[in-house]
Structures are given as C-alpha cells and as structure tokens.
Amino acid sequence: MSTDDLEKLCWNSQNIIKQVGQFIREEKGSVSQNQIEDKSLNSLVSYVDKTAEEMLVKALGQLLPGSTFLSEEETVEQKHGRYRWIIDPLDGTTNFLHQLPCFSVSVALQIIDEIEMGIVYEVNNDECFYAWRGGGAYLNNSPIKVTQTSELKDSLIATGLPYQDFGREVEYFTAFNYFMKNTRGIRRFGSAAVDMAYVACGRFDAFFEYGLNAWDIAAGIIIVKEAGGNVFDFKGGDEFLFGKEMVAVNEQLSDEVLQIVKQAFQ
Ligand code: IPD
Ligand code: CA
Ligand code: CA
What we know:
By secondary structure, this protein is of the alpha+beta class. Helix content is 36%, strand content 26%. β6 and β7 form a beta hairpin. The chain has 2 domains: 3-143, Fructose-1,6-Bisphosphatase, Chain A, domain 1; 152-265, D-Maltodextrin-Binding Protein, domain 2 (3-Layer(aba) Sandwich), CATH 3.40.190.80. It starts with a helix and ends with a helix. A 7-stranded mixed beta sheet has the order 3-4-5-6-7-8-9, with helices on both faces. A 5-stranded mixed beta sheet has the order 11-10-12-14-13, with helices on both faces. The protein contains 7 helices and 14 strands. α4 (169-182) packs antiparallel against α7 (254-265). The chain has helices at 3-27, 47-63, 93-97, 169-182, 192-200, 214-226, 254-265, and strands at 37-40, 43-45, 68-71, 83-91, 104-111, 114-122, 127-132, 136-139, 142-143, 156-159, 185-187, 206-210, 230-232, 245-249. The chain binds D-MYO-inositol-1-phosphate and calcium ion (2 copies). Residues 49, 72, 88, 90-91, 93 line the site of one calcium ion (CA). D-MYO-inositol-1-phosphate is lined by residues 43, 88, 91-94, 160, 190-192, 209, 211-212, 216.
C-alpha cells in the first residue's frame, strides 16, 4: 500500500475510532458490578469493551474489504491475512470501570508482518495520536516528536505495574527501584497504548512494562517510531509485539535505559 493510501486509510479509520470513543465516553459510569466479568485474574471486561470491538470490526472490515483481525475480545474470527487489524477496543478497562480518566481505543494495521499504521484515541481528553509508515506521527493534526532529554536525571518514566503475571516481579522492581532513584519520577497511568502515545509526543521520555499483549502496543509502536523514538524488547531486540515485554524510549536515552532494563531482567 502506498504512503498516500495509508494516509487516507488513517484518516478514515480515525473517524470510526472517534465514534467508538464517543460510545465509550457515554457509557462511563453506567456499568454495574454484575455487568463486569473477570476473564482471568484482574483482567476485567464488560459489554462496553465487547460492543466497542464489534463496532470497530464492522466498520474497519467495511473500510478494508478482506482484512482480518487480531482483537482482544475475540468478537470476530482471529485470522492473519495480508491486511490485519490489531485492536484493543478499550485499553485501560480498569480505569474506565473505576471512572478514572485515562483509557483509549487502540487500532493498528499490520500488512503481512509489519505494523504500517496506528491510532490511539485517548477518550477523556479527546486526543487522537496517529501515524502511518513514512508519514510522521501526529496528535490532533499537529506533528509530534519524542523528547531530546539526554540525562536520566531529567527524565520522566512511564510503566505498568504487574497485576496478573508476578513471575518477574523481582527483576521488575530492580529496574523500578533504579528509575525511582535516578529520574524525575515514575508514572503508572493504566493504559499502555496511552503510555506509548505520551512517549511519542514527549510527555514521557521512556516506558517499560512486561506482560503486555500485541493489542496493547501495536498502534503505539508505529506512533513512537514515526515520532523518532525507539522500541525494544528487554534484550534490545525486536521481539516486542508478541514477546510480552517492551521498552519505548527517545533516541538519546536509548542505550542507558536499555542497559538498566537488560541488567535487571538478565
Ligand atoms: C491493560 C492496560 C494497562 C497495562 C496492562 C494492560 P486493558 O490493558 O494497558 O496499562 O498495564 O498490561 O493489559 O486490559 O485495560 O485492555
Ligand atoms: Ca489493553
Ligand atoms: Ca482492553
């Protein structure tokens, strides 16, 4: 697909995603306790996640006939065709259910094996972050860039605390402890897609988390890269989409942040 076609698809997809965001916004505060299911430990879901996904699948499938889906709630057959949408209909479900203001819709388009377009729509602030291959990254029509922070002591770091897989908690808190003592601070906002979008636009200098799924980060990956940042697995490689671990960081801090994470998780 040409860069121009990707751009067009990105604009059309944004309209769909914002409509789904509007639905989620309207449902905030309306989900009762008995409408919440536990898919697994602390992995919550309600009709809002599922309906949002169904809306996305229907509209994105019409936008790109023949495309396939990898989607968190599996409301559609999961298939890997040439064009595959990777969808998290509501990233930050726990925040949404507790009426905390950070949750998003995250949609990426994978072509064969590469993520070529991504959109993260943070619903509360009506902020749409997006990028397509070769086109740069944007927030609500304005180009965005990662920070140029070069000293760890001047950086702000985002993370996700383990809440389900405690298998690497000691390693995690080794890295956490180092960042806590050697940066301006650490934030846990509760939507990995938003954490990555915030790295892309320079609100955070870096983000790290383990236990992530492809739909949490697929859109964020291309947005960070197109904004001039780097994305790694914990060994500094590129096994992040399905590797359940990720570091997203600006160029200047890449070596140092990676070194800290590598050492903690070795
Ligand atoms: C979660 C959020 C959270 C992150 C978890 C994700 P969900 O996604 O992105 O920030 O720490 O790893 O599972 O369940 O709200 O879609
Ligand atoms: Ca998610
Ligand atoms: Ca989700």
